[in-house]
Amino acid sequence: MKFFDNVKDTVKDDLQQTIKQDSKLSIAASCFSIYAFEVLKNELEKVSELRFLFTSPTFTAEKTQKDKREFYIPRLGRERNLYGSEFELKLRNELSQKAIAKECADWIRRKVTFKSNITQNNAPGFIHVNDKDGYAYIPINGFTTSDIGCDRGNNLCNPVNRLIAPISQNYLQLFNELWNDKTKMQDVSEDVLPNEATGFKESAIWKKLYNSQKDAAFAIINKLERYNGCILADSVGLGKTFTALAVIKYHENRNKSVLVLCPKKLSNNWNTYKDNYVNNPIAADRLRYDVLYHTDLNRSNGKSNGLDLDRLN
C-alpha cells in the first residue's frame, strides 16, 4: 500500500506513471470534471477503454415523483461539475473551457462508457487501473483536479491510498458487479454527445459546413435529444438550411424518420436536396426525408407535395 497526502505526493503524479498504453480504467465517482481530463489527457489518450460509474444519479432520465424535489438539487450540481467544480471555475475562463470541452468530448466518444447509480443509496468511490498487477486508489469522491491532488479545493486534507493486487482486484470485482447490475445502474444517454459512430461526419453535407455551422449542428442534436425541440435562427444567408440538413443526416444515419414541413414555395429547394439531381450538391448522402406543406397540417386526406396523406405513415 502507498499513501498519498495529495500535497507532496499526489494521485495525479502516480496515475501518470501507472497508466500505460492500452490500460483499462474503471472509475467510480460522484462527478466528472473536464479539468481532471485536461491534467491527465496524455495518459487518458493511451487507455483502450474507460468505464465511468457515477456513484449517485447523474445524467439519467427523470423518473422520481415531482414532490421529491430535494432529490434533484444535488444531482444538478453534480452534472454541472462536468464543466468544472466551483473552485475549478474560479481558475479558468470560458474560452479555455470551450477548447477543453471539445477535446474532452472527442476523447469520450472514442474511449469512454458512462453508467449511473439510479438508486438513492450511495456507492463507494475509487479508481482501478487494470494493468498486469492492477492498482486501486481509495477513497475517491469525484474525478476532479482537487480529488487527484492538483489543488486543495475546499478540503482540509484529501488523503488517498493505493492498493496493489490481490486486494486491488477486490475493487475491480466490486466495480464489475455494480456495472452489470441493471437494477441499480443505468446507461448514461449516448445522446448527451452526438454519436460519431453513425458516420455522419463523413457525409457530404458535413464536409460543406463551416465550423460555426458544425457547432450549431452539435448543439441542435443535443437539444433535440434532451428537450425534444430546438429553434435554429440567425441572420439571412448564414447557412441555416445546410445546418439543418446536417442534423437530418445525423438522425437518418440512426434510422430515424424525418419530416420536413415547409411553405409550398420552398418545397423545390427541400426536394432537390434529397433527390438524385445533377444540381444537388449532396446527392451522395441519399437523404430520404419526406417533405410536406405546413399549410396541410389540418388535413388527413388528399395530397401534399405529391404524397397521399391518408396512406402516409
Topology summary:
Blueprint: E1 2-4, H1 11-18, E2 24-29, H2 34-44, E3 49-54, H3 72-80, H4 86-90, H5 94-111, E4 112-117, E5 126-130, E6 135-138, E7 160-164, H6 167-179, E8 185-187, H7 204-207, H8 211-227, H9 240-253, E9 259-262, H10 267-272, E10 290-293, E11 303-304, E12 307-308
Parallel strand pairs: 2-3, 3-4, 9-10
Antiparallel strand pairs: 1-7, 2-5, 4-8, 5-6, 6-7, 11-12
Helix pairs in contact: 2-5, 8-9
Largest sheet geometry: 8 strands, mixed
CATH topology call of the largest domain: Endonuclease, Chain A
Q: Please give the number of β-strands.
A: 12
Category by helix and strand content: alpha/beta
Which series of helices and strands comes N to C? EHEHEHHHEEEEHEHHHEHEEE
Which ranges are low-confidence, i.e. pLDDT below 50, for 5 or more consecutive residues? 62-76
Helix content estimate? 25-40%
Q: How much β-strand is present in the residues?
A: 15-25%
CATH class label of the largest domain: Alpha Beta
Mean pLDDT: 84
Rg, Å, rounded: 24 Å
In whole angstroms, how far apart are the ends? Answer: 63 Å
CATH architecture descriptor name of the largest domain: 2-Layer Sandwich
Counting H and I runs of at least 4 residues, what is the number of helices? 10
Supply the CATH superfamily name of the largest domain.
Answer: Endonuclease Chain A
